[in-house]
Amino acid sequence: MTKHISVIVGSLRRGSFARKIAQNVLPMFPEGYEARIVEIRDLPLYDFDYDDPEVTDKPVPAEYTAFRETITASAGVLFVTPENNRTIPACLKNAVDIGSKPNSDVAWKGLPVGIISHSVGRMGGYSSQKNLRLALSYFDMPTVGQPEVFLSQSPDLFEGGEEIVNGSTVGFLQSYIDRLSQVIQGNSRS
Questions:
Q1: What pLDDT digit, counting tens, does each position of 134-176 carry?
Q2: Residue ranges per domain, the chain?
Q3: Residue limits of the NADPH-dependent FMN reductase-like domain (predicted)?
Q4: Are 131 and 96 in contact (CB under 8 A)?
Q5: Are 121 and 26 in contact (CB under 8 A)?
Q6: Fold that domain 3-186 belongs to in CATH
């Protein structure tokens, strides 16, 4: 049976480096895995009124339901995110919040997770990854402990193209995806 992996890109910009990195790692998953980007650009801002049973005049947006169902049906999730102002981008935090409700049916609960962060500077998105790990820690998500992936100076990864040009970076990412696949294999939610 195919294991579906949801890849969430923490940038809305079409040509973002996070999206390019995600596109490069999609085919790295082993046979029997199908990884695809789950778009978060059209998710309305999270508002608990949508999930509050006492608020009857604000139905749950269809985008929330579709996103939650996609995440719940996933065998694992991979976040690929830049760093914005020393933390995760607002669109990514919004997606995390949407998947965290309703309390009785949290989409993230127990879902194996991997994180790749990047920045145009030398820190590789360190702060964004740590903040994302903190936000996800509440959901008891099995993760790859080591290595952590912080890709610095992300424009240099591509040298103006779409493919990562450094063979050692490609190898490092492949080893990370292999480890994530092992975590997913060993932590089925079903």
A1: 999 999 999 998 889 999 999 999 988 999 999 999 999 999 9
A2: 3-186
A3: 5-154
A4: no
A5: no
A6: Rossmann fold (3.40.50)
